[in-house]
Amino acid sequence: MIDDKRHANIKAALALRGRSLSDIARKLEVAPTTISIVSRGIRRSRRIEAAIAGELGMPVGQVWPDRYPANRPPTMKGE
Known about the structure:
5 helices; globular
């Protein structure tokens, strides 16, 4: 689901920390548009979501609670 409000909040929170989505892109060696696509919710990437959350100093479930519910039991591959 595209969430431009969350995307704007992520960008603002990063700016308060002196960081940007482009900084994350350089660190992960991906295109800045790739980071924006994940931040906006167009596509998912656990690695990029974790990197964004890490730069914000937040658990990934706090940034994307709809994607990472706190009380969801762990699942095993193949189930």
